[in-house]
Design a protein that fits this description.
The structure is a single chain. The protein is of the alpha+beta class and 403 residues long. It has two domains: 123 residues, no CATH class; 243 residues, Beta-lactamase (3-Layer(aba) Sandwich). The chain is 25% helix and 29% strand. Strands 1, 12, 13, 15, 16, 17 and 18 form a seven-stranded antiparallel beta sheet that branches. A five-stranded antiparallel beta sheet has the order 3-2-10-9-8, sandwiched between helices. It has a two-stranded antiparallel ribbon with strand order 4-5. Helix 2 runs parallel beside helix 4, helix 2 crosses helix 5 and helix 4 packs across helix 5. It is elongated. The relative contact order is 0.18.
């Protein structure tokens, strides 16, 4: 999206030189791939998962690319802390606010930063410790500071889960220790990971750190990340591991080119199994995306009346060939265009708009539209006896088969 915004700003600056009459018109053009085109292909393979009892893979638009027992309930373990971070960030508390550490019995076997009751830790630091190192005491103190108690904080967690579409999840605590009625599923974990990274820059920045510094008993220490895919899987972007007696889980995110994937695996038997299955799931996803050409500089997309002679028009076309990575049996390709009004006067060799190509809700490419360097004569009919800006007969470059 940042690329699209930068392009839009460039276009607005260029168009600012023209008359206010040449107002930009934003339109959604369903240049959909016709039935029977390349997008009718089917994904005919499955990822090679070894341990996961439930798995799900979705793209940046929220489209489900793969699911296996994706709605079956399992303890989410420390993947819970992603929701804890979102709720804490929603609270409006400043990251530099100081939290007086409270010591409580968080059960046996959980990961602890081992804070002491004399420690005073900035809220942002606590959240980094719980996201990177998975400290249960960091999550517990975050929850108590934000909501007064873990019980009240859990209510906020469940409200948030419902609001973002996690329909098969219920939280009881902030850290993920296994207790009755604390559950989630692979699909909900993937949904949570996608939402967290797309809406919370703090979380996105924290979960790619390989270590985090904090103060424990008055001394500065370094705690290592629990994510074993960092620095090892091409394009990895976090997010959070989890482990309880019932199995190991992982919420994953990665990106290559204009494809971003979000995954959830749950119920794995070994610590590395959750990472191996996540890597296999992601790699399968990237292997199944295919490149399709959706536009080309030689394709005329529109004719505009020439600013210096109304008997002529200038062609508009994209400045470059656009290859989009698309999911074979997914939605058709469409485009959102910012272009001049059809009756706006155009000069030659000038950028006049931009096109954002999409597959469903996922952005797959962007390009600029530019006028040609030579105008072409219109029909010999008297120009004012016809609709002023009739398209010439040479128009016919439509988006056809994108194969």
């Amino acid at each position: 999206m940042s690329i699209a915004k930068d392009r839009e700003q460039d276009v607005r600056r260029l168009l600012g030189r023209f008359s206010p009459l040449a107002v930009l018109l934003v339109c959604v053009c369903l240049f959909a791939c016709p039935t029977g085109s390349a997008l009718a292909e089917q994904v005919d393979s499955e990822p090679d998962l070894k341990e996961a009892e439930g798995a799900a893979l979705i793209d940046s638009g929220g489209n489900v690319l793969y699911e296996f027992n994706a709605n079956e309930q399992f303890p989410p373990a420390s993947t819970t802390k992603v929701m804890t971070a979102m709720v804490a960030l929603d609270s409006g508390h400043k990251l530099d606010e100081t939290v007086d550490i409270v010591i409580d019995d968080l059960g046996e076997g959980g990961q602890l930063a081992d804070y002491g009751d004399e420690d005073q830790i900035p809220l942002g630091e606590l959240m980094e410790v719980m996201l990177v190192y998975s400290g249960n005491d960091a999550a517990y103190n975050t929850a108590c500071y934000v909501a007064g108690s873990e019980e009240e904080f859990a209510k906020l967690m469940n409200e948030k889960a419902k609001a973002i579409g996690m329909t098969n999840t219920h939280f009881v605590n902030s850290h993920g220790m296994d207790v009755d009625d604390h559950y989630s599923c692979a699909k909900d974990l993937a949904i949570m990971g996608r939402y967290a990274l797309q809406h919370y820059p703090f979380i996105a920045n924290a979960v790619v750190k390989e270590d985090v510094e904090t103060t424990v008993h008055g001394e500065q220490i370094v705690l290592m990340a629990t994510d074993q895919l960092l620095g090892k899987f091409d394009g990895i972007r976090g997010v959070k591991s989890g482990a309880v007696g019932a199995g190991y889980s992982f919420v994953g995110a990665s990106g290559r080119g204009n494809v971003q994937l979000y995954s959830g695996v749950i119920g794995c038997k070994t610590p590395m199994g959750r990472f191996d299955d996540t890597a296999a799931l992601m790699e399968w996803g990237y292997e199944n995306f295919v490149d399709r050409m959706v536009t080309h500089p030689q394709w005329v997309t529109r004719w505009q009346p020439y600013a210096f002679n109304l008997g002529y028009k200038v062609p508009l076309s994209e400045t470059r060939e656009v290859q989009c990575s698309v999911w074979p049996d997914g939605a058709d390709i469409s485009s959102v265009n910012m272009m001049p009004r059809t009756n706006s006067l155009a000069q030659t060799s000038t950028v006049y708009g931009w096109t954002n190509w999409k597959q469903g809700e996922r952005n797959v490419g962007i390009s600029l539209s530019k006028s040609g360097n030579r105008p072409e004569r219109m029909s010999a009919w008297p120009q004012f006896s016809l609709p002023l800006f009739k398209e010439p007969d040479s128009v016919g470059k439509e988006l056809k088969d994108v194969r």
